From TrEMBL:
Its EC number is 5.6.2.4. Residues 228-375 form the Helicase C-terminal domain. Its cofactor is Zn(2+); Mg(2+). It catalyses: Couples ATP hydrolysis with the unwinding of duplex DNA by translocating in the 3'-5' direction. GO terms for biological process: DNA recombination; DNA repair; DNA replication; SOS response. This is DNA helicase RecQ. Residues 532-543 have a biased composition (Basic and acidic residues). PANTHER family: ATP-DEPENDENT DNA HELICASE Q1, DNA HELICASE RECQ FAMILY MEMBER. The lineage of its organism: Bacteria, Pseudomonadati, Pseudomonadota, Alphaproteobacteria, Hyphomicrobiales. Residues 543-618 form the HRDC domain. SUPFAM superfamilies: HRDC-like, P-loop containing nucleoside triphosphate hydrolases. Residues 520-543 are annotated as: Disordered.
Length: 618
């Protein structure tokens, strides 16, 4: 058997002691323990956990506990590299087998596998499917197969990878080796496809809640988006790493430039950039502290950076699925993080136009519009955003107040908007349903513009009947009527606002309309502020961290990361540094008790860390 270097020899180790000695963690999280036990005992299963939920340990631990080497199939080369670097740091014998290796390097990995020298081997799917690799695996002692990002087998999903279809060969060739499929994609159809294609019929599914309690959701009304973004970063996330999503390449460039000139280190990323520039910007984002990457949705898949503190959207994503996936890249380490979006009427109109103008079938367009509507409803809701989000994925939510979204922290004022809605709809109707928001507002507030004169709209009964609201408030009314489906922007007629079937009920006074007041005065200050959910903050944050020590620890970590040529979080996670800064350990024993410090890390870095602590205390 392979005797993992990281494990004490002799007695068979149990899961908890390996969790502690190798990974430096005191306890399992959620379903991890059950999954680890099931797979270690030789069972197959499907694991559904949100990003950051802790999927890796579900196959890493059984690989260490079972005889032989765990084979991990992963489609993402960068992710494999970082995982292996992290495992090596923890003293686990891990390696990769993919196209980045030379022939000699690959041969050496193969030799070690056959010699029983490896605990974990990460393999790219196309590599695994080669006859050479299958025959190699046939000769090796294999602990388990883990198929990561298992949703890639789904032809209907967004990340379909043809090589994944071929992975059914694993169940055929190695029926007695346990298989564990893992994904963060929740929907029912994908789940069924994974089960069929990977031969998991009858095996249990371990489904965790998709809630990301450490992420604070916030959706603001778009006014001056670049200025709002700057304020958001400066006030709430100064010095933090974050991702800003924009729809177009031009906007990516402009936004990155604007942030840079405001003193925020920002880099652009989109498909139009030279591949080398893209790679360099991505590397800097991953390896350096506090870089903001401004990107199109081309960025993110396979980014495993655990300490992304915020994800900001300057444009509306296409669906709740996309919003959840993109915002989910924040806070994988479980620490407080923000999902912030600025959105306005033009966003809805723009997305609608993109759907209308796409070449998809009518059925496709109908589905797309339904998905967009659901997202707009999330953006407009006056209720808890988290409940909406989880409800969309079919997850029942206990309680109605999550305490960690903008609407729960600062409930919006609602008012009876029946009269305003009627005025607005009448105005659109009387002007012939040929005009956009701007003109309708001019007519309502009684502004004599050229267009008003030209069309004689000052003679209409609706002219000047809306003086009680200002322009911004009328915009909010229009946006909400569009979101509710009473008004529709016609992309074939220069986005003229037209009444829908349901508008009649509003005009006749049969439909109740509650509107949120435009831009509540209260601002959410800091996502670091203590949340009402007590379980959010890791225990190590109970004491305030010592700031100079924190800075010194980061500087030390950067230096080590540079020397070893690995990302900083591979050396030690932020939460571990924060733990050290809070506890200020004086002895190796105290240091060992901080989550994230396992035996190997203690051996490698223990003395140096204590020196850093002593120097900061001096
Ligand atoms: P996923 O693959 O599900 O996105 P990871 O396996 O990368 O998530 O884990 C996310 C983060 O959670 C990592 O920083 C990891 O160290 C941490 N983590 C996982 N399990 C535990 C645990 N039992 N206790 C503390 N931290 C954990
Ligand atoms: Zn909430």
């Amino acid at each position: 058997m392979s005797s993992p270097a990281a494990l004490p020899r002799g007695n068979a180790p149990d899961a908890l002691s390996v969790l502690n000695s190798v990974f430096g963690l005191p306890a399992f999280r959620g379903a991890q323990e059950e999954i680890v036990r099931h797979v270690t005992d030789g069972g197959n299963c499907l694991v559904l956990m949100p990003t950051g939920g802790g999927k890796s340990l579900c196959y890493q631990l059984p690989s260490l506990l079972r005889e032989g080497c765990g084979i991990v199939v992963s489609p993402l080369i960068a992710l494999m590299r970082d995982q292996v670097a992290g495992l090596l740091e923890a003293g686990v014998n891990a390696a990769v087998l993919n196209s980045t290796l030379s022939f000699d390097e690959a041969s050496e990995v193969e030799r070690r596998l056959l010699a029983g020298d490896l605990d974990l081997l990460y393999v790219a799917p196309e590599r695994l499917l080669t006859p050479r690799c299958l025959s190699l695996l046939g000769q090796a002692n294999i602990a388990l197969f883990a198929i990561d990002e298992a949703h890639c087998v789904s032809q209907w999903g967004h990340d379909f990878r043809p090589e994944y279809i071929g992975l059914s060969v694993i169940a055929e060739r190695f029926p007695d080796v346990p298989r564990i499929a893992l994904t963060a994609t929740a929907d029912e159809m994908t789940r069924k496809e994974i089960v069929t294609r990977l031969g998991l019929t009858g095996a249990p599914s371990f489904i965790s809640s998709f809630d990301r309690p450490n992420i604070r959701y916030e959706i603001v009304e778009k006014q001056n988006a670049p200025a709002q973004l700057k304020a958001f970063i400066v006030e709430r996330h100064a010095g933090d790493a974050g991702i800003v999503y924009c729809l177009s390449r031009a906007k990516v460039e402009d936004t990155a430039e604007a942030l840079t000139s405001a003193g925020i280190p920002a880099l652009p990323y989109h498909a139009g950039l030279d591949a080398s520039v893209r790679a360099r910007n991505q590397d800097r984002f991953i390896n350096e502290d506090g870089i903001v990457i401004v990107a199109t949705i081309a960025f993110g898949m396979g980014i495993d950076k655990p300490d992304v503190r915020f994800v900001a959207h300057l444009d509306l994503p296409k669906s709740i699925e996309a919003y959840y996936q993109e915002t989910g890249r924040a806070g994988r380490d479980g620490k407080p993080s923000s999902a912030w979006m600025a959105y306005g009427l033009t966003d809805i109109v723009q997305q609608r136009r993109m759907i209308d103008e796409s070449t998809g079938s009518d059925a496709f367009k109908r589905v797309s519009i339904g998905k967009l509507d659901a997202l707009v409803a999330l953006a407009e809701t006056a209720g808890c955003r988290r409940s909406r989000l989880l409800g969309y994925f079919g997850e029942a939510v206990t309680g109605t107040n999550c305490g960690n979204c903008d609407n729960c922290l600062s409930p919006p004022q609602l008012r009876d908007g029946k009269i305003s809605a009627q005025k607005l709809l009448s105005c659109a109707y009387r002007t012939g349903q040929r005009f956009g928001a701007m003109h309708l507002i001019d007519v309502l507030v009684g502004r004599m513009t050229e267009k008003v004169t030209q069309f004689g709209h000052d003679k209409l009964s609706v002219f000047g009947i809306g003086g009680e609201l200002n322009e911004k408030q009328w915009r909010a009314v229009i946006r909400q009527l569009v979101a509710m489906g009473h008004l529709r922007a016609d992309s074939e007629a220069f986005n003229a606002l037209k009444l829908t079937e349901s508008a009649r009920g509003v005009l006749r006074g049969e439909t109740e309309i509650m509107l949120r007041e435009a831009a509540p005065g209260t601002r959410i200050r800091s996502s670091r502020a203590k949340s009402r959910r007590g379980d959010l903050a890791p225990r190590t944050e109970a004491r305030p961290a010592h700031a100079p020590l924190q800075a010194a620890l980061r500087a030390w970590r950067s230096e080590i990361a540079r020397q070893r040529n690995v990302p900083a979080y591979v050396v030690l996670h932020d939460s571990t540094l924060d733990g050290i800064a809070a506890v200020r350990p004086a002895t190796l024993n105290e240091l060992r008790n901080i989550p994230g410090i396992g035996d190997k890390k203690l051996e490698h870095y223990g003395d140096k860390l204590l020196t850093v602590v002593r120097a900061a205390d001096a």
